[in-house]
Design brief:
Length: 368
């Protein structure tokens, strides 16, 4: 009888276990999408007059740009790094495209290739200095951001400020399908492609392993430094695409074209449930985080508040997201520590132990 009672008592979940089980079943991505859906419903209910075909057509291309920029930042943050050159690369690529094309549609293709190449070079420098020379990611990306912005300013003063973007580029970025911008549709496609590559390819699983546990991935023979430095190049390529899209949307570049996407990209990644210390990349969660942030900014703008209020809202949302992502793991760590005091062998089942981390990272690798 005592055995039955003990079994029943052990089967009862504590509040901490219930929270963990709920997060496991629903998943981070599901929780972010649920919060985004609630925000969308609240926005439509509170501001029904603000929801129109015109507002959706104006908002969706900017959401698409934010999604792509956030995906690039997520690639870097998943490795435990940070990229402060987002806005600089966006501006530099946009200015380069207009400078090379000189407003001509015939030179648009080569201008886009040159612009993307410039962005990838910046990403290569970031990855080289950070992963191979072990310099601080914050310092390196801040320095390259200043250099890139300086180059963009020089090009801007040499005639770019008087040149429009090629009309073909403007037509492509302004195009719509059922009220949804081609830019947003392209961004969703990019999310799907990156999600497939991360989950369904050997390269993606190796990058995940290198991000989750560098030592475990190195034991498996993975070229960790190369993969992690390549993430900066891939991120820069995505930032460059954002610069091309923005200059097409607005028609002319400015030296402050990408300024608003520096903090927004980080906030969208954190809202997607990723810790700034790194972890597994979830593109769908990043997409939801970007939509959540864009809708919240639109809600603030709808109330008639100045642009500064949107910046305040972004900062508050970022702090709240960091607290949610950080406090929950700390609470779980506290619960595991308390459990260990009563159960000396709890370490055998502790998912945070180094041995378990190596097994988990190794399980994500599928070599040919």
């Amino acid at each position: 009888m005592n055995v039955v009672r003990e079994a029943v008592d052990d089967s009862r979940s504590t509040p901490s276990q219930w929270r963990t089980d709920f997060r496991f079943r629903i998943g981070t991505t599901g929780l972010v999408w649920a919060a985004t859906a609630v925000l969308l419903v609240a926005y439509v209910a509170l501001f029904p007059n603000a929801v129109s075909f015109g507002s959706i057509a104006t908002l969706t291309p900017l959401i698409g740009v934010l999604v792509v920029a956030a995906l690039g930042q997520a690639l870097v943050i998943s490795t435990g790094g940070i990229d402060l050159s987002v806005s600089s690369i966006i501006t530099l690529v946009a200015v380069t495209v207009v400078y090379v094309s000189e407003g001509s549609n015939d030179r648009l293709a080569i201008a886009c290739l040159v612009g993307l190449g410039v962005g990838v070079i910046v990403g290569f420098i970031n990855g080289l200095l950070i992963e191979l020379l072990h310099l601080s990611a914050m310092v390196v990306t801040l320095a390259t951001a200043q250099v890139g912005l300086g180059i963009a300013t020089i090009l801007y003063s040499r005639g770019v400020n008087r040149q429009p973007a090629p009309s073909t580029l403007h037509d492509l970025t302004s195009g719509q399908l059922s009220g949804f911008s081609f830019v947003l549709i392209a961004a969703v496609v990019v999310v799907a492609v990156i999600g497939f590559l991360m989950a369904g390819s050997v390269l993606g699983r190796r990058l995940t392993a290198a991000s989750v546990s560098r030592e475990a991935a190195r034991y498996q023979g993975i070229r960790v430094r190369l993969l992690r430095s390549a993430s900066y190049m891939a991120a820069a390529l995505l930032y460059g695409a954002c610069g091309i899209a923005l200059v097409g949307i607005f028609g002319t570049p400015t030296v402050a074209l990408g300024a608003q996407y520096q903090l927004s990209a980080i906030a969208a990644v954190v809202l997607g449930g990723m810790a700034l210390t790194g972890g597994k990349l979830r593109p769908a969660a990043t997409l939801a985080g970007a939509i959540f942030l864009a809708v919240s900014n639109q809600a603030v703008a709808t109330t008639g508040q100045p642009v500064g209020a949107q910046n305040i809202a972004q900062g508050v949302i970022l702090i709240a997201a960091v607290l949610i992502v950080t406090v929950s793991p700390l609470r779980s760590w506290r619960d595991r520590r308390n459990a260990k005091k009563g159960k000396p062998d709890a370490q055998q089942h502790d998912s945070s132990s180094p041995a378990h981390g190596r097994r988990t990272a190794a399980a994500t690798i599928s070599t040919p």
